[in-house]
Write a structure and sequence with these properties.
Distance between the termini: 55 Å
Order of helices and strands: HHHHHHHHHHHHHH
Strand content: under 5%
Number of helices: 14
Number of strands: 0
Largest sheet: none
Radius of gyration: 21 Å
Structural class: mainly alpha
Shape: globular
Bound molecules: fe (ii) ion
């Protein structure tokens, strides 16, 4: 009998995976003010620049209403819209940073979660600076999320202490849609503004780790949930996903007014038309895959996913591009 000379390598433990993520954060990270040449004339924001016109991959940009507007209006709305999404993104990041601090506060010495959480918070601080700088330079009077969202924002980070499992699903609800949208814009390779392109490239590169951590965390903690907890969370997850995704993607009342989007267009885009329904379902392929592997999918919760309009086939692997078919 032949004795194998090499033992099969064991799968890395949760702690080892977090260590790898932490080391990656040390070796590759970005500084909001060092790694973006804000004052490069090529990066200047000109509010008349046609590159602010929303791309076709944007649900609003592809509507007949938007397409039929005069070019100056398309540019004005495009810049406002991109500044507003950026503002909501940074508000989410502020909540995430506060939540990570709440979570890390009671972790024991030597915890791999402590180290990674603080790396993530550091990176998110840079993102908030880079996003805010973009908003400032855009000159747009954007407020970001809805009034309700901004009112509950100071309380959301408490969830990280009390229901961390739900909180990290909420993190994905913020990170997955933004990441998905930014990746599809970058993939589409339009003639986009180089400043926004640079910001998106940096963001996509670092978000991959953050999303990776949330996935690792949830997969690690899922088997430790009590049965009732698992059931309640499984019903809440699709609701959290849809609510937070709406906060990011659907313009608030003020934004709607400032951009002058008619009511019927709002209804069609968010989320009555078949194209936008497909877009919405596609955003959550990776989250559905995770929901399967963390025991969050059962007959009752599947109904909630469907009621929220975010059901569908789970991704087979992370960042799998969605099929063209609806
Ligand atoms: Fe971020
Ligand atoms: Fe992030």
């Amino acid at each position: 009998m032949q004795i194998p000379t090499q033992l099969p390598t064991a799968a890395p433990t949760y702690e080892q995976r977090l260590q790898t993520l932490s080391e990656a954060s040390v070796h590759q990270h970005f500084d909001a003010f060092k790694d973006i040449a804000w004052d490069d004339p090529a990066y200047a924001i000109d509010p008349q620049d046609p590159r602010w016109i929303l791309p076709k991959v944007d649900v609003l940009g592809r509507t007949e209403w938007y397409q039929s507007l005069p070019q100056t209006e398309q540019i004005r709305i495009g810049l406002y819209r991109q500044a507003n999404v950026t503002k909501v993104g940074l508000q989410f990041e502020q909540i995430l940073i506060a939540g990570l601090m709440n979570y890390a506060f009671s972790l024991p010495n030597g915890s791999a979660e402590f180290r990674y959480s603080t790396h993530e918070a550091t990176e998110e601080c840079h993102h908030t600076q880079m996003f805010q700088e973009f908003v400032n330079r855009s000159g747009q009077p954007v407020h970001g999320g809805s009034l309700l969202f901004r009112a509950v924002a100071p309380f959301l980070p408490l969830a990280a202490k009390w229901v961390p499992f739900g909180f990290f699903y909420g993190v994905l609800a913020g990170e997955e849609p933004i990441d998905h949208v930014q990746k599809s814009i970058l993939r589409a390779g339009n003639d986009m503004h180089p400043l926004l392109q640079r910001i998106m490239q940096i963001h996509v590169a670092e978000e991959a780790r953050h999303i990776g951590f949330a996935h690792q965390y949830l997969e690690h903690k899922a088997p430790r949930l009590k049965r009732v907890e698992r059931l309640v969370l499984s019903l809440l997850v699709p609701v959290i996903m849809k609510w937070l995704c709406n906060e990011i993607l659907v313009p608030s009342k003020k934004a709607r007014k400032d951009m002058g989007i008619p009511k019927h267009v709002m209804k069609e885009v968010y989320w009555d038309s078949p194209e936008s329904q497909k877009f919405l379902r596609d955003l959550f392929g990776d989250v559905r895959m995770l929901a399967e592997s963390t025991g969050m999918m059962n007959p009752a919760s599947k109904r909630v996913w469907r009621a929220m309009g975010i059901d569908g086939r789970p991704s087979r692997f992370r960042s799998e591009p969605a099929s063209a078919a609806a």
